[in-house]
Amino acid sequence: MPAVITTNVVRGETPVAIQYTLLDSDNDLCSIDMQYSLNGVDFVDCSTDAGGDGVTGLASSQAGVAHTFSWDFVADLG
């Protein structure tokens, strides 16, 4: 089963770079769902920016592969 470890969140201007490591014992290509919540109950998909690695076809390994998700938080939060 794949696992994700968030390693760093680089804040500043939009977009926010969310850096994470994707691990999978079978080295499968993986997909992620990146979501946020304003109340801890209801979750919404994050808007992506042109940068980053996207959310599908992501490389993984037993040791982990570093990726970046580029969140356009201004589109989501105003």
Furnish the topology, listing elements before pairings:
Layout: E1 3-10, E2 16-23, E3 35-37, E4 43-45, E5 65-71, H1 73-77
Antiparallel strand pairs: 1-2, 2-5, 3-4
Describe this protein's structure.
The chain is mainly beta and 78 residues long. It is 6% helix and 37% strand. It is built from one helix and five strands. The model has no long low-confidence stretch (mean pLDDT 90).
Q: Assign an overall shape.
A: globular
Strand segment count: 5
Largest sheet: 3 strands, antiparallel
Percent in strands: 35-45%
Work out the helix count: 1
Into which percent range does the helicity of residues fall? under 10%
Strand order of the largest sheet: 1-2-5
Low-confidence stretches: none
Question: Mind telling me the C-alpha Rg?
Answer: 13 Å
Mean residue pLDDT: 90
Helix-strand makeup class: mainly beta
Distance between the termini: 35 Å
Provide the succession of SSEs: EEEEEH
